[in-house]
Amino acid sequence: MKPASFEFHRARSRAGAVELLTELADGDPKIIAGGQSLVAMMNFRLARPGHLVDITGIDDMTGIEVDGDRLRIGALTTHRTVEKAGLGVLSAAMRWVGHLPIRTRGTVGGSIAHADATAEWCMLAVLLDARIRVLGPAGSREIAAGEFFHGPFWTALEPDELIVEIVFPWPLPPAALTEYADRKGDFALVAAAVDLDRERTVLGGVGPVPLLVDSLDAEEIAAGLDVRDEPGVSAHYRRGLARTLVRRAVAEASP
Amino acid sequence: MIQLIELTVNGERHDLVVEPRRTLVDVLRHDLGLTGTHVGCEHGVCGACTVLVDGAPVRACLVFAVQCEKTDIRTVESLADADGTLSDLQQSFADHHGLQCGFCTPGMLMLAEGFLAEEPDATKEEIRDVVAANLCRCTGYQTIVEAVDACARRRRAARQEVLGRSAS
């Protein structure tokens, strides 16, 4: 389908984007970056923002920087850039993000803001205790990934706030993310990510937000899941996938 | 609301008046008449509308044309010579039967063109992985993988020859 009408605005700076969000507050504004989730939702008319604020022209929100014990990834950095940056688990996990043409355009910040329950970035952020740095009219603040995701497409981000960067602890631990979908590149039915140092697992596709479990024991994790039978996907099947994927992720992360 | 935008497509500049909600694929097809780019699902799943934006393969249904100002857009029309001679990649698709009905072909060509430019040494496995981005309901993909792989090999051989000649 075709998207509903909206007005288009270009932000030239971070502060300019926040100003636009504040000014347009009554007209249901939405930030657009790569648009790889948002435009699909608009084409389906599942999303009908009155205004789009394009932030792709802001030049100081792209890039990856090691800053002492922190790895800072600008919100506008694309999945493809991370994939090719040699950043351990983060780069390796990018092969699960859609397909190449999605990864060349989709951004890290966009993925976090969209907050799909099986999105790789949301899982990685929760697994590694990333912090989401946002800018609003009152200034900037950092939100722990563990407190950021409230539900599918629902986050701690205020309507007038902009995600500026995602901050991961550095160096990254031995970790891995793996998934299963019926067709390659589809949204995962179940996804699992493990951190061997802290012996924790994050599962996607088993609840409304990424589920953090302090264990690497595939049997125990699968048995403890609160999943129900759904059309086409029984609880038994989902549990089995979780068990297998945790094992695979542990194997991939092991040196 | 309408907006005046300037797009560069296949090296040619166009001034256009469009609604912001117009996706790039609709502007290419309806406003510029470049109907080589096909449109299938309109939600980023089928890849029929794949074009190059600044050299990278992009789903033209998942980007608004207003977002593409100051970029270099390339469509399937840019591949063949003005006299109709097919590009090496197009010829390879023909030679290896990489198309049947042809609906997915423009998207497949631009996907492969962008990918090979970035990864000229891609293995057959990597090519197989990348073409999974686009749907083809005729070929079963095998012949597409072979076409892209053969083109990549020929380009590598040509590059070697040039390197060999300049070394001697």
TrEMBL record, chain A:
Pfam short name (any one)? FAD_binding_5
Known SMART domains for this protein?
CO_deh_flav_C
> Domain FAD-binding PCMH-type spans what residues?
1-173
Organism field: Pseudonocardia thermophila
Q: What is this protein called?
A: Carbon-monoxide dehydrogenase medium subunit
* SUPFAM superfamilies cross-referenced by the UniProt entry: CO dehydrogenase flavoprotein C-terminal domain-like, FAD-binding/transporter-associated domain-like
Q: Does the keyword Oxidoreductase apply?
A: yes
Keywords on this record? FAD, Flavoprotein, Oxidoreductase
Do the record's keywords include Oxidoreductase? Answer: yes
Molecular function (GO) terms for this protein are:
FAD binding; oxidoreductase activity
TrEMBL record, chain B:
Query: Is Nucleus there in the keyword field?
Result: no
Q: State the UniProt keywords alphabetically.
A: 2Fe-2S, Iron, Iron-sulfur, Metal-binding, Oxidoreductase
SUPFAM superfamilies cross-referenced by the UniProt entry = 2Fe-2S ferredoxin-like, CO dehydrogenase ISP C-domain like
Q: Which Pfam families match?
A: Fer2, Fer2_2
**Which residues does the UniProt record annotate as the domain 2Fe-2S ferredoxin-type?**
3-79
Q: Quick one: which pathway?
A: Alkaloid degradation; nicotine degradation
The organism's lineage? Bacteria, Bacillati, Actinomycetota, Actinomycetes, Pseudonocardiales
PANTHER family (UniProt xref): OXIDOREDUCTASE WITH IRON-SULFUR SUBUNIT (PTHR44379), XANTHINE DEHYDROGENASE IRON-SULFUR-BINDING SUBUNIT XDHC-RELATED (PTHR44379:SF8)
Instruction: Report the GO molecular function annotations.
Output: 2 iron, 2 sulfur cluster binding; metal ion binding; oxidoreductase activity
Name of the protein in its database record: Carbon-monoxide dehydrogenase small subunit
